[in-house]
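Course assignment 3, question 2. Fill in each field.
Student: A.L.
Task: Predict the tertiary structure for the chain below.
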Amino acid sequence: EPVSLHPDENRAAEPGRVWKYAEADCEDITAADTFVSFTGPVGRGGRHVEHGYAMALGKRIVIVGPRENVFHAQPGVEVFETWSDFLAAESLRPARAQARLAAQNDTEVS
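Answer field:
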């Protein structure tokens, strides 16, 4: 389930008051199975910190949009041009996992 808890505001204005948003972001990433980062010209840079945090936790990482830095080239990082492309690929995931499990079971039985 996508999560974004902080409102659009100038977070640098009152660091003591807005730090709670960074803490909440870290808690959300820790609890998540998959970290999705939307890249592109809009943003304040926090997504790069979040990406590194997700990497450090060994999370599945998905980028929607262009790669923006060398960390986006990490093996295993999935990159999709659009959100629709990601959703289409994601809808096939259970079928792929079941097919791999069936093939593995066939190999073990043989």
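Instructor remarks: The helical segments are 15-31, 46-56, 83-109. Residues 61 and 75 are 10 Å apart (CA to CA).
Grade: pending
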